[in-house]
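Trying the structure run again after the queue cleared.
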Amino acid sequence: MHLFTGLLQQLRQASFGDTAMNRIFLTIALGVIVAFTLLFNAGAQSTAADEDAADSSGEVAVAIFAGGCFWCMEPPFDKLPGVLSTVSGYTDGQVDNPTYKQVSRGVTGHTEAVEIRYDPTQISYEELLAVFWVNIDPLAKNRQFCDRGTQYRSGIYYANEEEQALAEASAARVAEKFDQPIATEIKPASTFYAAEDYHQDYYQKNPIRYKFYRSNCGRDARLKQLWGAS
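Done. Tokens:
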């Protein structure tokens, strides 16, 4: 757009003489510039309209999953198209506003979990469930990988009957793959408490420490054993 404006200014300032040929050239040049300007403005308006239409949907749904250390449960969902945000926190406990210190001692009844906010027009709850399963050990009871205790139990916490049905159906499909019972609990969602700020996006804020912890906890090795290279 700036290019066309500059050319227009140069044409206006230029001296072409008063011959008929120069007047024709000037008319054609100005016509081309006007045409490009109109096309540019139409494209910009179309893009703005598309962006407004996308923003106007305003649909946000929430899923709550527990899969052991919440640091490790944010990355698989953050990269999915349609996921708006992930928050590490605590759920399914008996104490209001628990702290990490309390939860990590296993005395509040909570489990470490992630709250996923997503656009259901772009990604479905069922698709989120599929990602959840392949990022946990569904056979481990009251633990995940190197972390042990009820605060690391895996779980799906549904908000309505539809989510319950989808969660139970997905668990049944997973059960067919193994000869051991599925330990992942499926329960109604209760209050979710966001964890302390330093836990949020830990894998981004502290990438070296995160990779060291994840590797030494044996998470990826066990996931590969359970689900294969994918």
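Residues 1-56 have pLDDT under 50 and may be disordered. Worth checking whether this holds up in the mutant runs.
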